[in-house]
Amino acid sequence: MRVLVAMSGGVDSSVAAARMVDAGHEVVGVHLALSTTPGTLRTGSRGCCSKEDAGDARRVADILDIPFYVWDFAERFAEDVIDDFVDSYARGETPNPCVRCNEKIKFSALAARAVALGFDVLATGHYARLSGGRLRRAVDADKDQSYVLGVLTAAQLARAAFPIGDTGKPEIRAEAARRGLATADKPDSHDICFIPSGDTQAFLGARIGVRRGAVVDSGGTVLAEHDGVHGFTVGQRKGLGIAGPGPDGAPRYVTKIDADTQTVHVGAAADLDVRRLDGDRPVFTSGRPFDGPVECDVQVRAHGGLAPAVVEVRDGRLVANLRTPLRGVAAGQTMVLYRPDPDGDEVLASATIATVAR
Q1: Is the predicted pLDDT of residue 61 greater than 90, yes or no?
Q2: Alpha carbons 38 and 322: distance in angstroms, whole number
Q3: Residue 40: what are its φ and ψ, rounded to 5°?
Q4: Of 48, 49, 98, 101, which residue is the catalytic one?
Q5: 0.90 cut: is pTM over it?
Q6: Beta bridge partners of 263
Q7: CATH: 2.30.30.280, 1.25.40.10, 3.30.930.10, 3.40.50.2000. Which one for 210-267?
Q8: Virtual torsion, Cα 124, 127, 131, 137, nearest 10 deg
Q9: Is 193 a known active-site residue?
């Protein structure tokens, strides 16, 4: 089988490539150049896809004795991930760029090129498992990345492989060390790869500009002014620009963002609880929509934000009625549906949250 391995230059994709070689496949490694200025995309454990990362991936490929290439996806990444991220925040939403990167870049643009070149499978270093074509959580719950893969279609999953999903992270590092891979002790990337400084507000402000508005309480009283709703997220407590807590002495949180009027609403913690989520652009990992209501767990963040729910399809949307409320859910987030299973929870579907209701 011809296998293309996406090699980020980290330990996970390094071991994924090594395991595919061990399995006897014809393996080729590829590193994605996602920035026109790659030297700016790594600062220690922040960022990724830098020249340093490309060099690390190439050295691993040399040790494994497999062909290796760097493919330029910078323009596509800028349009489908970075621009989408900025536009979403400008609309008062809270997007997840890792979800969009998997959906638009790795398992769409990259996978399409792999198929065109005659590869059978695209393998990555994600912590997730495939069983009978169905996506499941990884063995290592702390590293599980099935959430950010929940947007993949049945056709995309049929051509995917996640070789390390059955192993914990410490064991992956140990395996890399035994194989003599220099990435064994390399720090994991965290935060948003295209914002290596970690200052999301400054990044957004430079691209969106000043769009002044008001911060108001539940009664409509103006508490402060701001330079743009892109500086806020639902559930935010600090940096609101308001003088102290509410009249009851309790902290105040961002409870709603109205980009049309540039209004940021604040209220009590209890005002963050939501019991219904409506999601656009649903994707069903089986390839078929639900026939009726489905009992499942709904997850709204990469780690955490999980609640039991009854979910059904209405007018092309996924509608989730939560049996227990979730706190601080925002439009733009991805909701991923799981079927509880002793062998590893199975991903059933996903959608982009459009509206929330208490």
Answers
A1: yes
A2: 43
A3: -95, 0
A4: 101
A5: yes
A6: 214, 258
A7: 2.30.30.280
A8: -150
A9: yes
From the candidates 48, 49, 193, 296, give the one annotated as an active-site residue. Answer: 193
Name the 3-class secondary structure at 294. Answer: strand
Question: Angle between the 83-90 and 200-208 helix axes, to the nearest 10 degrees?
Answer: 80
Half-sphere exposure of 73 (CA within 13 A, CB side): 25
Annotated binding site: 6-13, 32, 125
136: which strand partners?
129, 346
User: Is residue 191 predicted with pLDDT exceeding 80?
Assistant: no
Residue with tokens 């005659």: 118
Of the candidates 21, 22, 30, 27, which has an alpha carbon nearest to the alpha carbon of residue 3? 27
Tell me the angle at which helices 169-178 and 11-22 cross, rounded to the nearest 10 degrees: 70
The CATH superfamily of 2-125+163-185 is HUPs (3.40.50.620)
Reply yes or no on whether 98 is catalytic. Answer: no
Paired residues of 339 in beta bridges: 346
CA distances from residue 114 to 29, 49, 78 in whole angstroms, order as listed: 11, 19, 21
* Beta strand extents in the chain (DSSP E only): 2-6, 26-33, 42-43, 46-47, 68-72, 121-123, 128-131, 134-137, 160-161, 213-216, 222-226, 253-258, 263-267, 273-284, 294-299, 306-314, 317-327, 334-339, 346-357
List residues forming the annotated binding site for ATP.
6-13, 32, 125
Question: For 225-253, what is the HEC assignment?
Answer: EECCHHHCCCCCCCCCCCCCCCCCCCCCE
The predicted-structure confidence for 63-100, as pLDDT tens digits, reads as follows 999 999 999 999 999 999 999 999 999 999 999 999 99
**Pairing status of strand 68-72 against strand 26-33:** parallel
CA distance 159 to 298: 26
pLDDT digits (tens, 9 = 90+) for 264-293: 999 999 999 999 999 999 999 999 999 999
- The highest-level CATH class for domain 272-357 is mainly beta
26-33 sheet: strands from edge to edge: 68-72, 26-33, 2-6, 121-123, 160-161
Q: Identify which of 26, 15, 19, 32 has the alpha carbon closest to the alpha carbon of residue 121.
A: 26
